[in-house]
Write a structure and sequence with these properties.
single chain; 382 residues; alpha/beta; four-stranded mixed beta sheet; 10 strands; 10% strand; globular; disordered N terminus
Length: 382
């Protein structure tokens, strides 16, 4: 009797557990990783992986790209708005861990991910209708690629921007070779090599965002934007300007790098990364010392690759930059620093990568040159 009751109770518990597991699976399946909606006169893209700070993966790219193409060629919508769910991040970067796993195993994702991502970046950069990125939160790496090439980028006090790739043996991709050298003076090279983080209004002051609007005003702004009828870029500019004028938060604070800009322009003007390091060490100021220390932690191969990438990118079109960056991405997949950087910073988190080669001097010009060479029939075509 008691055995039967126990058995029944056990079965019931197992059934409940199974239902819980199935319920969890269904709920995670029911939540699409990207929401694509028509709201008023706008197409609205919501990056919807808030638990992983809306990190961009292949599924998301494959959903966003065809939808953008469709919206661009059709009569409706009039504008496109892209934003992130969850209140913390717009998009904290690409799903790097999945790429490293594939790269180690020789899987095709290591090539496919960068190819599809860069094609999407180019689609955004050449998009014929007004494209507005609401970068209200963490915006790094892949998230920058989804926003910076669009016509309008709206930062808030919650925006945290960085291109931190040299710390993981990569380089500031997603068109970093295009937009970074076009920032004031040597600011782009400084941000690319050091991974320096910009916050809030400073993201706009640096030229990464076009506007600054207080976070609490974003829902109201979005509401106004989606109900505009066939607006021109000028019409949208006026609306964004008016919201920016109502946003006084931190307006009196100077740009965080204001007092360092002349130092950045001077200390990052050498014709090599070794030269920059020498200048920083010789300078002796607190600021220079801090930057030298930061650079000494980065992958020497990544630093040299990034320097050349920005140097070349300064005079190239976005399309040519993305073709070049695809070559670099595949060089990183063939090398070892990318896997080691991800291990040290994202997997084991010991913050102690063992770079190979371990010094700038050991990274030959020839090694760097090879990273930029053609991939033949595997080239990125746009």
């Amino acid at each position: 009797m008691s055995f039967t009751i126990l058995t029944s109770a056990y079965r019931l518990r197992s059934l409940c557990r199974l239902q819980r597991i199935q319920g969890h699976m269904m709920s995670s399946q029911a939540e699409p990783e990207v929401l694509l909606e028509k709201v008023g006169n706008a197409g609205v893209i919501t990056l919807n992986r808030p638990k992983v700070l809306n990190a961009l993966n292949m599924t998301m790219i494959r959903l966003i790209y065809p939808q953008l193409k469709k919206w661009e060629s059709g009569d409706a919508p009039d504008i496109v708005i892209i934003k992130g769910a969850g209140g913390k991040a717009f998009c904290a970067g690409g799903d790097i861990r999945a790429v490293t796993e594939a790269g180690k195993a020789g899987g095709s994702l290591a090539g496919d991910f960068f190819r599809q991502e860069y094609i999407l970046n180019n689609t955004i950069g050449t998009f014929k209708k007004p494209y507005i990125a609401l970068i209200d939160g963490i915006t790094m790496g892949g998230g920058v690629g989804l926003s910076v090439h669009g016509r309008f980028r709206v930062a808030t006090e919650k925006t945290l921007f960085a291109m931190p790739e040299t710390a993981i043996g990569l380089f500031p991709d997603v068109g970093g070779g295009y937009f970074l050298p076009r920032l004031q003076g040597k600011l782009g090279l400084f941000l690319a090599l050091t991974g320096f983080r910009l916050k809030g209004r400073d993201v706009q002051r640096a030229g990464v965002a076009t506007h600054f609007v207080e976070s609490m005003k974003i829902p109201e702004l979005e509401e106004e934007l989606v109900h505009m009828k066939s607006p021109s870029n000028e019409d949208i500019s006026k609306v964004l300007d008016s919201y920016q004028n109502q946003s006084s938060l931190d307006a009196e604070k100077p740009f965080v790098l204001d007092k360092h800009m002349s130092d950045i322009n001077r200390l990052f003007s050498s014709s090599s990364v070794e030269g920059i390091m020498q200048d920083l060490k010789a300078d002796g100021s607190e600021f220079a010392k801090k930057q030298a220390e930061t650079l000494s932690k980065m992958s020497p191969t990544s630093l040299k690759m990034t320097y050349k990438q920005l140097q070349a990118g300064a005079t190239l079109s976005l399309q040519d930059v993305l073709v070049m960056e695809y070559r670099l991405s595949q060089a990183c997949m063939r090398g070892c620093d990318f896997y080691e950087g991800v291990r040290a910073l994202l997997v084991d988190k010991d913050q102690n990568p063992k770079w190979n080669p371990s010094t700038l001097e050991e990274v030959s010009e020839q090694t760097v040159e090879q990273c930029f060479s053609s991939l033949g029939d595997k080239e990125l075509t746009l």
